[in-house]
Structure formats: structure tokens, C-alpha cells
Specification:
The complex is a heterodimer. Chain A is built from 11 helices and 10 strands. By secondary structure, chain A is an alpha/beta fold. Chain A has 2 domains: 191 residues, Bordetella uptake gene, domain 1 (D-Maltodextrin-Binding Protein, domain 2); 120 residues, D-Maltodextrin-Binding Protein, domain 2. In chain A, strands 1, 2, 3, 4, 5, 6, 7, 8, 9 and 10 form a 10-stranded mixed β-sheet that branches. In chain A, helix 3 packs across helix 9 and helix 3 runs antiparallel to helix 10. The N and C termini of chain A lie far apart (47 Å). By secondary structure, chain B is mostly helical. Chain B has one domain. Helices cover 76% and strands 1% of the residues of chain B. In chain B, strands 1-2 form a two-stranded antiparallel sheet. In chain B, helix 7 crosses helix 15 and helix 8 packs antiparallel against helix 21. Chain B is globular, with a radius of gyration of 22 Å. Classes of the chains: A alpha/beta, B mainly alpha. Chains A and B meet through helix 3, strand 2, helix 4, strand 6 and helix 7 of A and helix 3, helix 16 and helix 21 of B.
Chain lengths: 321, 498
């Protein structure tokens, strides 16, 4: 299980030393930090269990990142507390680039839900995945369109399953209520799969879950996906209209970024941002993520930072109600 | 039939066979390590198998799944430490047998029962996947709640000689199950600000503490008092004819119960094992032996918890919904390999279903052979002087518990549970009801609250399945004592007449 490969590290050290000798006269900035990074193993903290969607995204990226950085990278799963345990751990690590983390959308949500998590403790280095929300009903449901469902939910409470209290899908249900003035009643389950099952079995009126979670059941005609809550349609279900196309301006979903504890040295940060961007563009990464039904993206830190702050503000107002 | 030939033909590939061998060795190793669950090892392996072709990849994952469930039994029998919740019931009779110098028979009986149960479960996968998965779909929050309430009545069975103490232990377990964030509102309860407790007490740590660590503590204390009885004598290895005969009925009961429980999403080997152990005890001619080293009890529990494997896979494939946490990982891999689990899979790729069943069958046979060969080696461990053995057990428990979540809090919980377990043992409180309360309490609360959220009380009262389970639950607690009283009073009535 140890992926320690000595040879590349040694090769890197030798070449780094050579590089240092070359650049040493021309550029005084070339001190040990730039040229040496990374000179030891890097750890990527994933705040969820091994085997889940976040873990998959992180591990697939890490596989590519190892080649880009020519370093050994260890994925460490620290799950618990809706992701707060791992995020808390990450915030407490040295900002030297040797401890990175997978930052899920929960990074900007948990702080508004009573967890001691502050988004400004982290420095996002690039977004790598996006998981649009979908809303779906059982295949034999009387609701054919999003409008049917929301019209019915104006007069009576309709039960809508989600993967857990305070999850992004729970928040997405609230966002729909806010936009349409409806009474969708979020029912938290213990994970995305049980929530989808409850809808397939007709236990609830609808389910809000990620594209990858509803796509499989929809293909088998067990679920009818009424809308994708994103700006664009999802490749995995190109015939399903977005909520916006149906007249409801709701765009919400999960995302994942790679980040570090706040305060990285500039040169280390630069090296990481470049490497993450190349890894996120690699065919291997894009293919694995897309085949799991999610969307591989590559958004640089500057553009992502403003989105990160917008999302933080959005959840602050959504949860304060 | 060509699908059968095609599906099983895929197994003739030497790569696949090699993968099964690798999976079996890895699975048995992790299974024997307390704390490291099948879920965790399959999850870690899946990161590597994703780059393989689907069939060899599945061969590795499914074999680890089967083998880890086998390996699990060894520490449960030898040192009273269930490797995972699925082998809690193994400790009930397995450990007493070992203490009586029958560790050899206990290990073999357990291995054969596990293999028998696994094969029974595979029949479900092959023949009844679709209808069984339909049934599983009918289990919503209301039905799950009722099922779990029924499960809680098993406390009576696992309480041992003192029912009151058993009930008190179960109540303690229920209280512990409320630690963590409220399942519906997310409000913090009894976490004392410890972030790691917000998902509730880590129950693997609690189980290892209450059983294994408490036992080691207990032995250390009695050893100093000079009364320790180390397991030296392993006794015979093969069960004799009368023992084999006594294994038949509990094996069938266990396999049947395991097959049904395994098909339900979110219910697994722990519930199956305990339910089957209690059911078999009720139907036995020698119920008084249960919990004191009964071959029947060991067989019932182990066949049931392993019989959940096949149906769990079949629910996963037929519904596209994981039957247990290991299957949640497998489903992720299947989707990435381009398979589409769901009812369509059985129509479009029946050969895949046979390949999967074939892999699991081969894995079972291989693991059975390996366990029988390996057992003598493993049980050498017991020839260690007790103080070395205790050290080994404690180190294994520490490392295993830490590895589950990379969490020191889990290790602390385990040690505290060890001390609590020691006191309970000294005061005559059984540990199993605590675990039952902890695991089932969480499920009962979350599902009840969900059901109420969805449709209020009528959600439960209008569900025939839920009602049936609730009635059976009430009856199983009230009927036996009522019948006993009735019989006694009849006897008294008759006496003056005769």
C-alpha cells in the first residue's frame, strides 16, 4: 500500500540540485523552497470515507498529480461530522504544501450549521469536480414536470428525500422552496443511496440528489428526473431540462476542490496550482469522473475564489432562515 | 443456459483465478485483524482495482468481501473480539467453546457454517434476485422502524440468565445511541463539543472495547489473583457425527434468516447473526446450552451472517442500491466500469450475474480450504504465555481501531468501553444487549422520525409489513412468559383433580 518510489524522488533531488546551480547566479529567488518542492511525501486529506464520490475524485486526481509533481502522495481518509472532522484536521496542519485536502461544498456550509469550520482557513488551489443537483420522482408518479410537482407542493407538504441533514441536497430542497414558495418537506436519509431507494420504492414523493446518484435509476425507468438544478443540462441525462428552462431560477449543487491550509508560500502555491490544473485536464481524470456520472472541471484558484465566497454568502443566508 | 456457460466461462481466465487467490489472502488477513472491516479493505482495494478490467477487478473485491467475513470469526472465537459487528454472535458460543478446550471444533464449525450460509445466500442471488429486490423496495422508513423494534426484542434472548440486567444493559445501549447529531434536525446531543462524536459513538470501537479489551482486562486481574485459565487445549478439529447432526437445523434456520435480512438495504450480518441465534435458541431442544458453548448457537449465527452476502449482492445488482456498506463501494466501481446496476442488468447482462456468483462460490471454497489449513497456525497464538497474548490482543485492537477512521478519539472510546465492559462483566451485566441497543437504537430513531416526517403516525399504522413486525415484536416478548404462566396454572388446576 506504500507508494514510496525512491528513484523519482532521488532523480528529482539531483535535477533540482542541478537547476539550483543553474538558476542560482541568474535568479536569487531560486532558494531551496522553490526548487526543492516537493522534496518529501505529500498527504491529501479526504474528509469522507474511502470509496465514496469525494474519495474517488481525490484519489483519481492524486494518481495524476503524483506524475505532475514527481512525488509520492498519500490519501488519508478522515471522515466524520459531515466532513468537519477532516476539514478541522486540515486547518490545523502546516501551510507548507505537504498537507493538502479535498474541499467539498460542505466547506462553505458547515460553518453556518453550528460546526466550527471557517472557509477562510483554507486556500483553494483549483476546483476539479462539479455535481449538479437533480430532482426526481418515482417512475409511476403523477408529476410529469417540475411545474406539476411544485404546483402540488404549493397547497400541501410533499416529502422529498435527501442524503442527510444539512447536506447540499437538503439545502437544494430549501433553495427550491425559496424560489417557488412551495412546501417541499426535506426528509434526511443516511446517505444518497438510501434516499434514492426511498423514491424508487415510492416511500417519498420525490428525491433531490446528485446527477450521478439519480442517473442509474432513471436509465432503468425506476425514477423520472424532472429537472437538473444547474445552468446547463447534464451529459448523463441530456434530455432532462434544467430548472431554469422550466422557469425556476435555481442553480445549486455539490463541488469539490483541492485546497491547503491558508498561508502557503507563493512559490509552493504556484507549483501546486499548475500541477493540479494539468492533472484535472488529464484524460484519465476526466474519463473516470465523467463515467461516474459527475462533471470534471478545471477552474483556477482566482476564478474559484470568488465563487467560493459567493457560495459561502449564499449558504449563510439560506441557513439563517 | 448459455448465459450460465458464458458467465462461468469468464472464470477460466488464469488472471481471474489469481485475483481470487490474492483477494482471499488479503481478505482473510484483514478479517482476522479486529477493527479493520470488509468495507474498509474493499474501499482501499477499489482504488487499485479501478484500473483493472471489470472481471478481475470484481474478483478481487468480491473475494475480499467473502474472505474478510470468514477471517472475522477467528479473533471472535479465540480472544472474544469480534472483528466486525457481523461476528458478535460468534462470541456468544465460540468463545465459551474455546474456553472449554474446544477451540478446534469451534473454528471448524464456524468455517463450515459460514461456507454453508454463503452458498445458501448465493442461491438467492442466482434464483431469487428480482423478486427479493422487489420485496426490499417495500421497506421504507416505517417498515425499517418496525423491523428494528422486532430486532430489539432479541435482547431477551441475548440477556443470558438475568433478564433485568439484560434489559438494563440494552437501555444503556439505547442511551448511548443518542450521542451525536440528531438524525433529522442536526442538533448536537451529548457530544461534549467533541467533533468526532457528532456522527455518534464509533460502534466498532465500542464493540472491540466491550468484548475484547474488557476480556483482556478481566483476565489480567484474575491472573494476578492466580485463577486465570488460558486456552491451552484446542481439542479435536473435526466435529463428530452427533455434532454434525446437531448443526443441521440451526444452519438451515440461519441461512434462511440471513438470506432475508441480507436482501434488505442497510441491514446486514450483525442483525442477521443475532436474530438467527435467538430464533434457533427458541426452536432448540437444548436452549440452556446457548451462550455456554453450544455448537448449535455458533452454527446459527455464523451461517446467518454469511448468508447475507449473496442477497446483499443481489439487492445491489437488482436495485442499483447498495445492500450494505461494502456493496456501496462495489456499486461505485461497477458504474465506473460501465455497468448499470438495476433491474435492467439481469435482462441485459445475465452472464455478469453468473460470473459474480461464480467468483463468490470459488472464493468461498478457497477461503474454506485456507481457513482449515491455516487455523492450526493461527491458534498457535494461544500457546503464547498469557501476558504476551494480552499484549498482542491489545496492540491489534489499538491499531485496528485507529485505522478505521485514523482517529485517536476512537481509540479513547475503545479503552473507555473496555473499562465499562470490565465493570459490567464483574457486576454480571451482559455486553451484547449494549451493542444491540447502540446499533439498533440509532436505526430505530432515525427511521421512526423519517416515517413521522413523511406521513405522521398513520405512515406506520397503514403499513401491513410494519404492523406485522410490531405485532410479532410484542408477541415475542409477552407470549413466552404468558404461556409459561398458563401452563403452570393449568398444571396446578389439574393437580387437585388427579
Amino acid at each position: 500500500m506504500h507508494r514510496i518510489s525512491n528513484t523519482p524522488i532521488r532523480a528529482l533531488a539531483v535535477s533540482a540540485a542541478g537547476l539550483l546551480a543553474l538558476t542560482g547566479c541568474a535568479d536569487r529567488q531560486g532558494d531551496d523552497e522553490t526548487a526543492d518542492f516537493p522534496s518529501e511525501d505529500i498527504t491529501v486529506v479526504v474528509p469522507y470515507d474511502a470509496g465514496g464520490a469525494s474519495d474517488l475524485a481525490a484519489r483519481t486526481l492524486v494518481g495524476e498529480l503524483e506524475d505532475e509533481l514527481d512525488a509520492s502522495i498519500v490519501v488519508e481518509n478522515r471522515s466524520g461530522g459531515a466532513g468537519s472532522v477532516g476539514l478541522d484536521h486540515l486547518a490545523g496542519q502546516d501551510a507548507d504544501g505537504y498537507t493538502l485536502g479535498y474541499l467539498p461544498v460542505e466547506t462553505v456550509m458547515l460553518g453556518h450549521q453550528g460546526y466550527d469550520i471557517d472557509p477562510s482557513d483554507y486556500e483553494p488551489l483549483g476546483q476539479i469536480v462539479s455535481v449538479p443537483a437533480t430532482i426526481a420522482v418515482p417512475a409511476d408518479s403523477e408529476y410529469e414536470t417540475l411545474e406539476d410537482l411544485l404546483a402540488a407542493a404549493e397547497d400541501e407538504e410533499l416529502s422529498v428525500a435527501n442524503s442527510g441533514t444539512g447536506s447540499i441536497w437538503h439545502a437544494a430542497t430549501s433553495a427550491l422552496n425559496e424560489e417557488a414558495g412551495t412546501q417541499l418537506d426535506p426528509v434526511p436519509f443516511d446517505g444518497g443511496a438510501p434516499a434514492v431507494t426511498a423514491a424508487v420504492g415510492g416511500q417519498v414523493d420525490a428525491v433531490v440528489a446528485g446527477v450521478s446518484e439519480t442517473a442509474t435509476a432513471a436509465e432503468d425507468d425506476q425514477l423520472r428526473v424532472l429537472a437538473v438544478l444547474d445552468d446547463e443540462r447534464a451529459d448523463a441525462m441530456s434530455d432532462v431540462p434544467t430548472a431554469e428552462e422550466q422557469g425556476y431560477d435555481v442553480s445549486i449543487g455539490g463541488w469539490g476542490a483541492i485546497g491547503a491550509p491558508e498561508g502557503l508560500p507563493d512559490d509552493v502555491r504556484e507549483a501546486l496550482v499548475d500541477a493540479i490544473s494539468s492533472a484535472a485536464d488529464s484524460e484519465e481524470f476526466v474519463e473516470t469522473i465523467e463515467s461516474s456520472g459527475n462533471i470534471a472541471v478545471n477552474v483556477g484558484p482566482e476564478e474559484f475564489q470568488s465563487f467560493y465566497e459567493e457560495e459561502n454568502a449564499r449558504f449563510e443566508s439560506l441557513f439563517s432562515e | 443456459m448459455s448465459a450460465v456457460a458464458e458467465g462461468l466461462g469468464a472464470l477460466a481466465d488464469p488472471t481471474v483465478l489469481l485475483c481470487i487467490l490474492v483477494g482471499a489472502l488479503a481478505g482473510m488477513l484483514v478479517g482476522a485483524f479486529p477493527g479493520i472491516t470488509a468495507t474498509m479493505s474493499v474501499a482501499l482495494a477499489s482504488a487499485f482495482t479501478l484500473t483493472m478490467d471489470p472481471i478481475p477487478g470484481l474478483a478481487v473485491l468480491l473475494t475480499i468481501y467473502v474472505a474478510a467475513n470468514f477471517g472475522d470469526r477467528v479473533p471472535a472465537i479465540l480472544v472474544n473480539t469480534p472483528g466486525t459487528p457481523a461476528s458478535i454472535s460468534t462470541t456468544f458460543d465460540g468463545y465459551p467453546m474455546a474456553k472449554q478446550g474446544k477451540a478446534g471444533i469451534a473454528l471448524t464449525t464456524s468455517a463450515f457454517s459460514a461456507a454453508f450460509g454463503t452458498f445458501g445466500g448465493l442461491l438467492v442471488l442466482i434464483f431469487a434476485a428480482i423478486p427479493l429486490s422487489r420485496m426490499a423496495l417495500n421497506f421504507g422508513p416505517a417498515e425499517m422502524f418496525a423491523l428494528v423494534v422486532f430486532g430489539l426484542t432479541m435482547v431477551v434472548g441475548v440477556s443470558g440468565s438475568n433478564l433485568l440486567k439484560g434489559l438494563a444493559a440494552a437501555a444503556f445501549g439505547l442511551v448511548l445511541s443518542t450521542v451525536g447529531r440528531d438524525p433529522i434536525t442536526g442538533a448536537e446531543r451529548m457530544t461534549f463539543g467533541v467533533l468526532e462524536l457528532s456522527d455518534g459513538l464509533p460502534f466498532i470501537a465500542v464493540i472491540i472495547g466491550l468484548f475484547g479489551i474488557a476480556d483482556v482486562f478481566d483476565q489480567m486481574l484474575t491472573h494476578h489473583a492466580g485463577t486465570a485459565t488460558a486456552i491451552k487445549n484446542l481439542g479435536r478439529w473435526m466435529p463428530n457425527r452427533s455434532e454434525r447432526r446437531r448443526m443441521r437445523k440451526p444452519a438451515l434456520i440461519g441461512t434462511g434468516i440471513g438470506a432475508v435480512v441480507g436482501a434488505l438495504p442497510a441491514a446486514g450480518g450483525d442483525i442477521a447473526g443475532i436474530t438467527s441465534w435467538s430464533a434457533s435458541r427458541r426452536l432448540s431442544k437444548t436452549p440452556e446450552e446457548y451462550g455456554r458453548g453450544s455448537v448449535e448457537g455458533l452454527t446459527a449465527g455464523d451461517s446467518a451472517s454469511n448468508a447475507t452476502l449473496g442477497p446483499s449482492v443481489s439487492t445491489t445488482l437488482a436495485l442499483g442500491v447498495p445492500g450494505d456498506s461494502v456493496m456501496a463501494v462495489v456499486i461505485g466501481s461497477l458504474v465506473i466500469w460501465g455497468f448499470n446496476p438495476g433491474p435492467g442488468l439481469f435482462a441485459s447482462q445475465p452472464d455478469l450475474v453468473y460470473t459474480i456468483a461464480g467468483i463468490m462460490a470459488l472464493a468461498t471454497v478457497l477461503t474454506l480450504v485456507l481457513s482449515l489449513l491455516r487455523m492450526r497456525g493461527v491458534s498457535k497464538l494461544l500457546e503464547l504465555p498469557p501476558h504476551y497474548l494480552w499484549t498482542v490482543v491489545i496492540v491489534f485492537c489499538l491499531v485496528g481501531t485507529f485505522a478505521v477512521n485514523n482517529s485517536v478519539v476512537d481509540v479513547a472510546v475503545m479503552l473507555v468501553a473496555g473499562v465499562v465492559g470490565l465493570f459490567m462483566r464483574r457486576l454480571g451485566f451482559p455486553a451484547a444487549p449494549v451493542v444491540l441497543g447502540l446499533i439498533l437504537g440509532e436505526l430505530a430513531e432515525a427511521n421512526l422520525r423519517r416515517a413521522l416526517e413523511i406521513g405522521g403516525v398513520s405512515e406506520i399504522l397503514t403499513s401491513p409489513i410494519a404492523l406485522a413486525f410490531l405485532v410479532v415484536a410484542v408477541a415475542s416478548v409477552t407470549l413466552p412468559p404468558a404461556l409459561r404462566r398458563l401452563r403452570r396454572s393449568r398444571r396446578r388446576d389439574r393437580r387437585p383433580v388427579s
